[in-house]
Amino acid sequence: MKLWKGIEKEGKFKGIKTLFIGSKSITFEEINKLLLDDKNIKQLYFGAGKCTDINENLLSKIIKHYSDFIITAEININKLHTYDLRILKHINIFLTFTNKNIHLIKQLNNDKTFIKIQTLKPDDKKFLSIGEHNKFIETNMDDHIDKIYKGDVVLK
């Protein structure tokens, strides 16, 4: 599965009809044709399907030609350094942090649980950010099957 459409079920743009791009091999022409065929699509989501790799050349072209769309990329924090941040500054980014213990957060008191993100190295680029877990947007995963949600339509 490389390309599919459906209603966004996660985060800030929940409820918006979305074209999910889950492969570097998808072309501008394929996306353009699908957008001409389905005028209800409002978001283009790169990296769909558990943070697949993103074709930056395609992403740049999409940014130039489809500025009226919501353009989003899902990127695993461990791969962020491999992308051109000058391109990513123009779109919405969902940074994904994965760890085998993340499921335990749900068992804690959300009013007293904070998420802390910080750099370890290098010292000259220090960064620390803290947010309240109870302000995160939780997604119901009951309809999530493999890499898509129930109701999504696989196109390629």
Count of discrete structural domains: 1
* Biggest β-sheet: strands ordered side by side in the sheet: 5-4-3-2-1-10
Binned, the helix content reads 10-25%
> On the 0-100 scale, what is the average pLDDT?
92
Main beta sheet strand tally, sense and closure: 6 strands, mixed
Stretches with pLDDT under 50, minimum 5 residues: none
User: Beta-sheet strand percentage?
Assistant: 25-35%
- Going by helix content, strand content and strand pairing, the class is alpha/beta
Helical stretch tally: 3
Describe the structure.
The protein has 156 residues and is α/β, with parallel strands linked by helices. It has one domain (3-100, 137-154). It is 15% helix and 27% strand. It contains three helices and ten strands; from the N terminus they run E-E-H-E-H-E-H-E-E-E-E-E-E. The chain has helices spanning 28-37, 56-65, 85-88, and strands at 3-7, 17-21, 43-46, 70-76, 92-96, 114-118, 128-132, 144-145, 148-149, 153-154. The strands form three sheets. Strands 5-4-3-2-1-10 form a six-stranded mixed beta sheet, with helices on one face. It has a two-stranded antiparallel ribbon with strand order 6-7. The longest helix has 10 residues, at 28-37. The mean pLDDT is 92.
Notable traits:
156 residues; alpha/beta; two-stranded antiparallel ribbon; 3 helices; 10 strands; globular
